[in-house]
## 1
Amino acid sequence: MSHYKPQFAICRLAERCRAGVRRCLGAEANCRKTTLAPKRIRTQRRSGLPHRTGAALVELAFAGPILFMFILACFEFGRLTMIRHTADNAAYEAARYAMVPGATSAEAVDKATQLLATVGARKVEVDVNPKVLAPETKTITVTVRVPIAGNSWVAPKYFSSYAIEATSHLATERYNPD
């Protein structure tokens, strides 16, 4: 068991510091003088490891295109999902707009086209069935078709014949007194 007590070590260190300060303030000859110029810090090179100049650049050359492809795919799928969701919503809203008495199929087409224009969808095809909405009409079906070819950056090269299609089928609110 050791008789070492940390308090005594701290006190001895403080005494030595006080003595050194007295010597320097008294301008003794053995006082260490400090210089104002900073000392140059030298880094030590680890021995045994090769010097790797340009390794990060080579790794970026391999990983960069793959990373860029994944980022582009995220944007592409995000945009197509946004167009798909808007097409679903446009078909439903157009059918709701056409189901009330006095509405026409042209108004439903305009409503769907207007909603799809908010996301920048191009070459949109809207079909309302039946074409003429009479008081005897029981149901209305609105189909919205947005081709991928005009609304995507990369997908048209591989999926040019595909389209996003949404259909909404609603009962009408026509009044028939018979």
Note: The longest strand covers residues 139-147.
## 2
Amino acid sequence: MTDIAGRTIWITGASSGIGEAMALSASRRGARLVLSARRADELERVRAACAHPDRVAVLPLDLTCFDAEQARRDAEASFGPIDVLVNNAGISQRSLLVDTSMDVYRRILELDFFAPVALTKTLIGDMQRRRSGHIVVISSVVGKMGTPLRTGYAAAKHALHGFFDSARAELWRDDIRFTLVCPGFIRTDVSRNAITADGGRHGRMDAAQDKGMDAMRCAEQIWAGVARDAEELYVGREKIAIYLKRWVPSLVSAAVKRAKLA
């Protein structure tokens, strides 16, 4: 069991959406927090909204261009070693394969895959020495099944599962735990911030996103899963698609081909 009360938690992508909700929820549970994102002003807003702002440190970070070792040192400067890392930062996609540039694919992979890998690697050695640590990875239902307009996003999320499933198999003897979270549609700005074929911003809320689960409810379910050391956690009504994909893949494939997802 992972009790986050009194633990030091580093959350990326903490300036909005699921990351912000997880920060607010963790603060109420008595955790010490290091919050990272690009926007320092938004991080300060989240810090001020936390139950215990004095136990919250702000660490602005651009995960598309950063020194992971220096980021670790900066993160540890406030409250000491990191007990729980929440790899939440990421960007979604709204573009067709035939229109999408390779630069866009590389940008998605850099933030959604390579950044979580780099942050995890920089913390693992200390976690091994302490024989304690928990890595939380915010994937997606799309990490289990591809959908239109999200080729790069689906690739990055699928890659997370391969990497962290393997990491779990290597590190379980060191008492390091991994929880991969697959949310469905959560009511955040993820679709507004999604990248388009030419690298621009999608700029509008998808209908399905607008009707999605409340971010705070999602955060509470994630922390409950972390508390019981869940290896994989599905959140939202869309999780049914994951089970259907396993048992009736042809049915899901037919539905996805006809889905209007933006």
Note: Strands lie at 8-12, 32-36, 56-58, 84-87, 133-138, 176-183, 232-235.
